[in-house]
Amino acid sequence: MQPTAEPHNATLVEKTPLETYVPPAKPSLIGLSRTELADRLGDIGVAPAQRKMRVQQLWHWLYFRGAQSFDDMTSISKSIRAELAQHFTVDRPEVVAEQISNDGTRKWLLRLPSGDSVQKAHEVECVYIPETDRGTLCVSSQVGCTLNCSFCHTGTQRLVRNLTAGEIVGQVMVARDRLNDWADREDGTRRVTNIVMMGMGEPLYNFDAVRDALLIVGDNEGIGISRRRITLSTSGVVPNIVRAGEEIGVMLAISLHAVRDELRNELVPLNRKYPIKELLQACRDYPGASNARRITFEYVMLKGVNDSLDDAKLLVKMLKGIPAKINLIPFNPWPGTAYECSDWDQIEKFSEYIFNAGYSSPVRTPRGRDILAACGQLKSETEKLSARERQALRAMAMTD
Ligand code: SAH
Ligand code: SF4
């Protein structure tokens, strides 16, 4: 057998200790809008008449070519490059670990400055999932999450902060760097074709940064991933759903998971604030939703909890009139959870009912479970795992 180019189930970058982390001394330009870039150029003395042209050049180098240093930006005058390098960087979040699953999924652990002296750095994860016809990057919007959904590992993480727009765009840029996926790929194809805001955090509780980042990611003079290929997943922050449609214009996914308020209050506690009826109304009002641009309803399959045929029936009934598709997600276990994934034949029965009612109902194949990269398994080690948790993780990875 030929040796494979990339080792399976491999760790390519070994994690460096948190104590060695040195926060960046200068701000990065990644994540700035054109207007903000023009302002920064003004700060370093670029004349107003020149700024527009310089911004265009910078934009091209940063977001189209993926330049990793000002030196690479050969169309910009040497003196401006030197001035830029003196005050700014083009740094992305630091990659402190990279793992490749035996199914090709890659997970990067990224380290970010915390801004406080006690806890020197924060960590988030970002996952790349290659498929035959696409490559999807699962991006985080927060360190941890404030929402505590009872089946989600991220929700158990205590430490929370919003990511900046630069840290969100930076995840896409890290993936392009690591996958050699910038404009100069020889065959002209792209590895990262789709973005899902389904990593750590609730994107609609970090609205401005997520909006600014996605507008950059979608800009066709730069990273150029079309808005139809970007999906924002929310647990149901109702007031920001319509806003997301108006101000970002990406595809919407709703983490529904239950069809009755009583159960959804338990699974997704945010439901107590924004119950199912209000959530579905926001979906009906979502700008741009149509049969060609359906809203995805995510439904995690929890054994004996939400997986009966009665649930399936009610689900079909309540989505009437909404251009919807339903995504069934087999529950991904994590150490300490009391939930179990539904039996496979129950998932099939549930899926068949929905399919017969006219909905496409793909069951999301769990990817990257061996490296804990699957939905809901992300939890950075900013909080250290206990020895027992580590053992449980290893045991789980082996049985998958
Ligand atoms: N906070 C946002 C986006 C991140 S979670 C949201 O909740 O929508 C991305 C998806 O993974 C959500 O649908 C979430 O409900 C689901 N998820 C969380 N934990 C899971 C688990 N253990 N197994 C399967 N899916 C899970
Ligand atoms: Fe937060 Fe989403 Fe996890 Fe709920 S499912 S705790 S909203 S990341």
Would you write up a description of this structure?
The two termini are 25 Å apart. Strand 4 (121-130) and strand 5 (135-138) form a beta hairpin. The strands form 2 sheets. The chain has a 10-stranded mixed beta sheet, with helices on one face. A two-stranded antiparallel ribbon has the order 6-7. By secondary structure, it is of the alpha/beta class. The protein has helices at 34-43, 48-64, 78-87, 165-178, 207-218, 238-247, 261-267, 276-284, 309-318, 344-356, 387-399, and strands spanning 10-13, 94-100, 106-113, 121-130, 135-138, 142-143, 161-162, 194-197, 230-234, 251-255, 295-301, 324-330. It is built from 11 helices and 12 strands. It has 2 domains: 34-87, Orthogonal Bundle (DNA polymerase, domain 1), CATH 1.10.150; 94-399, Alpha-Beta Barrel (TIM Barrel), CATH 3.20.20. S-adenosyl-L-homocysteine binds at residues 151-153, 198, 202, 233-235, 255, 298, 300, 329, 331-332, 375-376.
Q: Which terms would index this structure?
A:
400 residues, alpha/beta, DNA polymerase, domain 1, TIM Barrel, 2 domains, ten-stranded mixed sheet, two-stranded antiparallel sheet, 12 strands, 31% helix, globular, disordered N terminus, disordered C terminus, binds S-adenosyl-L-homocysteine, binds iron/sulfur cluster
The CATH topology of the largest domain turns out to be TIM Barrel
Topology pattern, helix = H, strand = E: EHHHEEEEEEHEHEHEHHEHEHH
Task: Give the distance, in angstroms, between the N- and C-terminal Cα atoms.
Answer: 25 Å
Lateral strand order in the biggest sheet: 1-2-3-4-5-8-9-10-11-12
Question: Would you identify the CATH architecture of the largest domain?
Answer: Alpha-Beta Barrel
Task: Give unreliable regions as ranges.
Answer: 1-7, 381-400
Query: How many extended strands?
Result: 12
The gross shape turns out to be globular
Q: Which value, in Å, is the CA radius of gyration?
A: 22 Å
Compute the average pLDDT.
88
How much of the sequence lies in strands comes to 15-25%
